[in-house]
């Protein structure tokens, strides 16, 4: 066990030296998972490969031949299981998105702003009602993990119509109307040294979505820049009102 921990720590340290900040891109506890993998491998080496100068027998040969894939399989299952269990325990709160009936294009949810709204909870799900400008600012912090999203169009009378995820990854079909989760990110905030960084307490943390009604449009760089500028302006205005 001590050897496995030492080897794992050395491996993580080496990877950290090579990748630098990019090691934070791992969403799983790599140190713990590598310890598990090393432990299984050392157990296999100790129990099945060390012969102590004994004459090789058919049974020992079979243990070596069959033991390695078994240990490898158990290691993969253990690592995957731990990763899934960790993600399940840290999963974000289920969210239901209510989108204006005729809305099409991008919308953003801005997380962790004291000046934002505190969404209502309905049947254990956070209700996020997207405004017509496509930018919703809320108080809860952003949480990563296994997401549970539902999407609905909502008309002026409050009637909801369920929308599917835009792309069905199981068969490659595209659903229109549909909603695509583009990804999460941040707009850097000011730092004491005069620079900008996503680590700044003034950084804007968001998740991007896109609604497709009838057509599949191409990426529009100018439109995305305009939308980001609008996001920054609305968040700054929100923060000023909260002072």
Walkthrough of the structure:
The protein is of the alpha/beta class. It folds into two domains: 2-89, no CATH class; 95-242, no CATH class. The chain is 38% helix and 24% strand. It is built from four helices and eleven strands, in the order αααβββββββββββα. Strands 3-4-1-6-7-8-11-2-5 form a nine-stranded mixed beta sheet, covered by helices on one side. Strands 9-10 form a two-stranded antiparallel sheet. A hairpin with a 5-residue loop joins strand 9 and strand 10. The chain is elongated, with a radius of gyration of 25 Å. The N and C termini lie far apart (54 Å). The model has no long low-confidence stretch (mean pLDDT 77).
Main sheet, how many strands, which sense, barrel?
9 strands, mixed
Stretches where pLDDT falls below 50 for ≥5 residues? none
What is the helical fraction, as a range of percent?
25-40%
Output the number of helix runs: 4
Radius of gyration: 25 Å
Going across the biggest sheet, name each strand in turn. Answer: 3-4-1-6-7-8-11-2-5
- Shape estimate: elongated
Find the structural class using helix and strand composition. Answer: alpha/beta
Mean pLDDT: 77
Q: Tell me the span between the first and last alpha carbons.
A: 54 Å
| Count of DSSP strands | 11
SSE order, one letter for each helix or strand: HHHEEEEEEEEEEEH
Number of domains: 2
Strand content: 15-25%
């Amino acid at each position: 066990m001590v050897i496995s921990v030492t080897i794992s720590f050395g491996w993580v340290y080496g990877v950290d030296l090579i990748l630098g900040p990019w090691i934070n891109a791992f969403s799983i506890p790599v140190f713990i998972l590598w310890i598990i993998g090393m432990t299984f491998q050392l157990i296999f080496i100790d129990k099945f490969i060390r012969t102590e100068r004994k004459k090789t027998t058919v049974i020992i040969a079979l243990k070596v031949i069959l033991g390695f894939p078994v240990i490898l399989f158990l290691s993969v299952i253990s690592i995957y299981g731990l990763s899934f269990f960790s993600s399940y325990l840290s999963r974000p709160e289920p969210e239901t998105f209510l989108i204006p009936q005729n809305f099409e294009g991008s919308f953003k949810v801005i997380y962790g702003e004291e000046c934002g709204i505190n969404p209502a909870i309905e049947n254990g799900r956070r209700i996020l009602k997207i405004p017509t400008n496509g930018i919703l600012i809320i108080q809860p912090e952003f949480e990563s993990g296994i997401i549970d999203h539902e999407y609905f169009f909502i008309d002026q009378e409050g009637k909801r119509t369920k929308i599917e995820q835009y792309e069905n990854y199981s068969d490659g079909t595209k659903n229109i109307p549909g909603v695509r989760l583009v990804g999460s990110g941040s707009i850097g905030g000011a730092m004491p040294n005069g620079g900008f960084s996503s680590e700044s307490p003034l950084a804007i943390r968001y998740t991007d979505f896109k609604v497709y009604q009838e057509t599949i449009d191409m990426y529009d760089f100018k439109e995305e820049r305009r939308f980001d500028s609008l996001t920054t302006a609305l968040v700054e205005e929100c923060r000023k009102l909260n002072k």
